[in-house]
């Protein structure tokens, strides 16, 4: 009986979240803003990837960022340095953003001025999985330093994403990880998403992530 009620509460919570996520997406659509939810473990390279995407895309698009973290001002300041509009979202003890938190951040952004919205989720591969934020595309960043088996140990999140970025390939040899093995694991879990190997130190693979963002913006929001 106790078990059943726990499941009911979780189901209601996720249902309520989905409803707000749909509203967020409808609001973004009204302003023609395409939003991306960047997920992945602490230190996998989410903030650096978003910073590099801003640098590569800011002459072409107006970009806004939502920095979600336990204490969000640090990553928020990294985004602000690039001259984009930023809303920091402190999650405190929560291990993921949710659609309700994002709905308030959307109120603080000038959506009429934006083309792209990058949302950095709280760092981990588990909690954000079930919480649609209302973004159009979901991206997961996983670093080779997390270990070769990290993808197959966390299949759920990889099922929900449109792009997997396997990052830090510049140090793959040092940590004795084969990034292609991680790529194959990701494709075994989800054969419809794209998988890109990157180094944000050498910028290898970055062009392909830029292409993904542009394609998502220009080619409809699926
Ligand atoms: N060697 C190497 N370091 C990286 C790479 N990408 C990110 N880093 C470093 O990893 C650390 C964590 O990156 P950050 O973007 O803050 O990760 P986040 O916690 O996912 O936002 C920083 O010191 C980055 O400079 C990469 O491709 N190669
Ligand atoms: Mg970060």
UniProtKB/TrEMBL annotation:
InterPro entries: CobW/HypB/UreG_nucleotide-bd, Hyd_mat_HypB, P-loop_NTPase. Transmembrane segments: none annotated. SUPFAM superfamilies: P-loop containing nucleoside triphosphate hydrolases. One of its GO terms (biological process) is protein maturation. One of its GO terms (molecular function) is GTPase activity. Keywords: GTP-binding, Hydrolase, Metal-binding, Nickel, Nucleotide-binding, Zinc. Residues 39-196 form the CobW/HypB/UreG nucleotide-binding domain. It holds the Pfam family cobW. Belongs to the SIMIBI class G3E GTPase family. HypB/HupM subfamily. PANTHER family: HYDROGENASE MATURATION FACTOR HYPB (PTHR30134:SF2), HYDROGENASE PROTEIN ASSEMBLY PROTEIN, NICKEL CHAPERONE (PTHR30134). This is Hydrogenase accessory protein HypB.
């Amino acid at each position: 009986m106790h078990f059943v009620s726990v499941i009911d509460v979780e189901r209601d919570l996720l249902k309520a979240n989905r409803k707000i996520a749909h509203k967020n997406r409808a609001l973004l659509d009204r302003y023609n803003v395409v939003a991306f939810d960047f997920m992945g473990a602490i230190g996998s390279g989410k903030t650096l990837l978003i910073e590099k995407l801003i640098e590569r895309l800011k002459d072409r698009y107006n970009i806004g960022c939502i920095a979600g973290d336990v204490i969000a001002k640090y990553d928020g300041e990294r985004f602000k340095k690039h001259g984009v509009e930023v809303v920091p979202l402190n999650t405190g003890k929560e291990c993921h953003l949710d659609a309700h938190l994002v709905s308030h951040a959307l109120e603080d952004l000038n959506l009429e001025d934006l083309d792209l919205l990058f949302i950095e989720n709280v760092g981990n591969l588990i909690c954000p999985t079930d919480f649609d934020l209302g973004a159009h595309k979901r991206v997961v960043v996983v670093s080779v330093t997390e270990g070769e088996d990290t993808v197959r140990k966390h299949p759920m999140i990889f099922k929900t994403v449109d792009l997997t970025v396997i990052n830090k390939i510049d140090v793959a040899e040092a940590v004795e990880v084969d990034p292609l093995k991680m790529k194959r694991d990701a494709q075994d879990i989800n054969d419809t998403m794209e998988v890109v190997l990157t180094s944000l130190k050498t910028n290898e693979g970055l062009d392909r992530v830029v292409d993904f963002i542009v394609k998502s913006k220009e080619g409809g929001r699926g």
